[in-house]
Write the structure tokens for this entry.
Amino acid sequence: MSDAYTATARIINQLYGDGTPDKGALAELRRTTAITDKGAEKIWPLIFSAVPKLSTNGKPTKLETAVYTALHCYAAFQQGNDSFVFGQIPRSKDNEESGENGVSLFTALRKMKINDSNEKKALDRRVTALLATTNISSATNSINHLVSILKGKKMGEKIDFAQLAEDLYNFQWSTKNARFVALKWGKDYYWNVYKLASDND
């Protein structure tokens, strides 16, 4: 697993604390959207102890940006939930048998669209706009909105926020990389929808 994935998973597990969440830290994460925001300094100790390579010039690294964005999304999604909302995507049959049952953010959005046809048009429009951008600020802003929409539906899905961090990290390296990540997200969001439509023909 990548540094982004490992660091994010580690911090999320620390924040949840085996059922006794760090409510203060989670509140600051919900209130801030970037690692440089006022209030984010309360989260820095967790991040700096988990991220292997830190910025030395005062500007957030790609890794720090990706991890913080994913943590903000996790904190927003965890609010009001007693059960743990983070789950890792099963990488093999052994992972499934061990109880790993997370899905990607865009797989969860796809399921929401299938279950609520009233949201389909608006959700498609938001996701399409996200998939068209190669700007990290625009992408993170769109993702924050999508997480809020998904949270409001209370579907009970466990989201792999560590995978989201890894994707956001890869997204930042180049326009080409951003397009690769967008393609990955698009497959998660559209793939089964197209398959279901085909099956019904």
Remarks:
- Residues 110 and 191 are 9 Å apart (CA to CA).
- The chain is about 65% helix and 0% strand.
- The two ends are 40 Å apart (CA to CA).
